Amino acid sequence: MLLLLILPEFSRFIDWALTLGGGVKFVLDGFIAAPAWVGSNFEESLGFLVGSVASDVTALLLLFVLATLLRGYLPLHPDSKLGLELSRSRRIWFERSFLTAVFAAVTAVLVFTPLGAALRNEAGFYVGTLDSLSEIQTLISRETIPNHGYQTADGSWEGTFLGLSPRYAWLTRFLVVWVYAAIFIAWLWRGYNVFREHYRSMDWTPRDDVVDNLRNHNWGIFGLAIVLGFIVLALFAPTIATYPIQENIYEPYSGDSEFKYFDEEAGEVQTALHGDANLDSRSQGEGSGTVSINEYDDYDRYAPLGTTTKGKDMMTYIAYGAQTSLTIGLVAILLAVFMALLLSLASAYYGGIVDLVTIIATDSIISIPIFVLVLMMSVVFSQGDVWIAEPMDGGFLLALIYAFAYMPSMWRSIRGPSLQVAEEEWVDAAKSYGQTPLAIMRKHMAPYVLSYLIIYSSLLIGGIIIITSALAFLGYGVTAPTPEWGRLISNGRQAVATESWHVSTVSGVMIAIVVTGFNALGDGIRDAIDPQAEANSGNAGGGA
Q1: CA nearest neighbour of 417 among 443, 451, 442, 440
Q2: Residue 242 pLDDT grade (very low, low, confident, very high; cuts 50, 70, 90)
Q3: Pseudo-torsion of CA 285, 290, 295, 300, nearest 10°?
Q4: Tens of pLDDT along 504-526?
Q5: Pick from 310, 255, 250, 300: which is nearest to 278 by CA?
Q6: Distance from C-alpha of 279 to C-alpha of 297, rounded to nearest angstrom
Q7: Which InterPro entries is this protein grouped with (predicted)?
Q8: For a designed S-S bond to 38, which of 58, 133, 390, 513 qualifies (C-beta 3.0 to 4.6 A apart)?
Q9: Would you say residue 413 has pLDDT above 70?
Q10: What does 151-186 look like in DSSP terms, one character per residue?
């Protein structure tokens, strides 16, 4: 069944994998470039020799951090193989140093020998092959179900799916996307139930109660439906969009943006560029060439949600804007969760000065209002012309700022549970058996607090979407041409009372629905994990 679901959209899955790989490569390139950046700064002020030493030391520190994280996964103990008799603490440092030396040797070979270039060429070959496979036409694609064509003199349509009008051709593709997504989600849910009933070794786990409680939580199910719809909209943006984003938004005057349309005055089919057509289809209020919801413009282009103030297709903008918001939200939350989890476990396990320093640092960040902090950091880094401000026109930078800004509040939210689990008997037992602090945190403490992080993450992601839209409304954060819903509200706010009302209204309604969905899902997960929370909340409210 899974094969039948993947095969029609095989190239789309490859494209998603390539996109994820591109993001990982960007992060790795940043870590690789960090030593050179540090060395160049020292070289400018202290000379070439000091800069080289600073670059090498930075590289070794990064490799040491990587070795510390991966030491627990070593299949053997190098000190035992070498016949060394070391204490537990010395063995840990020896293994970390050994791994660091191995990573440094491998890095030197890849950088200073032809092997590195050969491996890069080999990787480039496979990436190119996958890129070619990602171009294969899928069942749910614009090429299979085209909606952009032109009308002939007799009123029929050319170039559209089965000769349908662009309206019904696009609607057909739109409905097929949601049917496919619904079938895939239903298969995943059915697979989970089959695994739970027939293949799992245990008859019951605490997760079963959470799932069952969430299934009976109407508000949480409503939020889950909204969130799933938002994810589908983002993942299938190239298909749901009425027109290719490259032609309609990014490069409307390129040669690829040329299309045919029927000119009624000339009585013949002519060609135009999306850029020129956009100028005549701008929804800017009274007296403009407004194209409202479910209308065609003068170039036979169908706009399900109308056009923007610059004549660009609203549905294309909304779909890719969802992709922008989802990417920023996920990156920010994952990084914030990772940092908050590390800090909470370390401060709870070690206590003392570690806990005190963490409290002072996080309180200093929390003392600044979240919107002011994000706005300030966004402006400073954007004007600093740093490399991380390039992806998504500042979107990746914004995600990093969110992670830094939201981490303290997430840390404070799980500090109590972390302190509680650090005093449990199973943690003391693990210490007595000689397990390392990192292993104890990873195996015995982290699973206990992760459920709390899931709750706060689902609640915070709605706030991230609102702040991203607010920044775009003010002209900061994600800049043009990357689509962002808040920028639509800003651009169309002057025309709310005119026939171009849809520009601000549609985007504003989308933000409200999605944020409400994430908040509802967060409430549902919270009540599913801790059913007493809802009862206590209700009692407190009644008493008040």
Answers
A1: 451
A2: very high
A3: -170
A4: 999 999 999 999 999 999 899 88
A5: 310
A6: 11
A7: BP-dependent_transpt_permease (IPR050366), MetI-like (IPR000515), MetI-like_sf (IPR035906), OppC_N (IPR025966)
A8: 58
A9: yes
A10: E-TTS-EESSGGG--HHHHHHHHHHHHHHHHHHHHH
**Residue type at 103?**
F
Alpha-carbon gap, residue 242 to 415, rounded angstroms:
47
Helix (H) or strand (E) holding 273: strand 268-273
Phi, psi dihedrals of residue 269, rounded to the nearest 5°: -80, 130
Reported as a single tens digit per residue, the pLDDT across 264-287 is 888 888 999 999 999 999 998 877
Which of 313, 259, 301, 311 is CA-nearest to residue 281?
A: 311
User: What DSSP assignment string belongs to 299-340?
Assistant: TS-EETT-B-TTS-BHHHHHHHHHHHHHHHHHHHHHHHHHHH
Here the tokens at position 63 are 């490799």
Q: Does pLDDT of 537 surpass 60?
A: no
Q: How far apart are CA 276 and CA 414, in angstroms?
A: 54
Residue 189 has pLDDT above 50, yes or no: yes
pLDDT tens-digit profile of 485-499? 998 998 888 888 888
* 157, 163 contact by CB (below 8 A): yes
DSSP 8-class letter at 286:
T
**C-alpha span between 169 and 162 (Å, rounded):** 8
Q: Are 340 and 347 in contact (CB under 8 A)?
A: no
Per-residue confidence (pLDDT) for residue 544, from 0 to 100? 32
3-state helix, strand, coil in the chain (%, to 5): 75, 5, 20
Is residue 303 within 8 Å of 278, Cβ to Cβ?
A: no
Using alpha carbons, select from 100, 121, 259, 240 the residue that is nearest to residue 170: 240
pLDDT tens digit sequence for 10-51: 888 898 888 888 888 877 887 788 888 888 888 887 888 888
3-state secondary structure 254-270: CHHHEEEEEECCCCEEE
User: Please, what's the b/e burial string for 8-35 (b: 16 or more CB within 10 A of its CB; e: otherwise)?
Assistant: ebebbebbeeeeeeeeeeeeeeeeeeeb
283-288 long-range CB contacts below 8 Å, 24 or more apart? 283/307, 283/308, 283/309, 283/311, 283/492, 283/495, 283/499, 283/500, 283/502, 283/503, 284/309, 284/495, 284/500, 285/494, 285/495, 285/498, 285/499, 285/500, 286/498, 286/499, 288/500
Token pair for 219: 């508000």
pLDDT of the residue at 542: 36
One-letter amino acid at 282 equals: R
Q: What is the mean pLDDT of residues 473-492?
A: 87
pLDDT at 438: 79
Residue 52 has pLDDT above 50, yes or no: yes
For residue 124, give both structure tokens.
């480039």
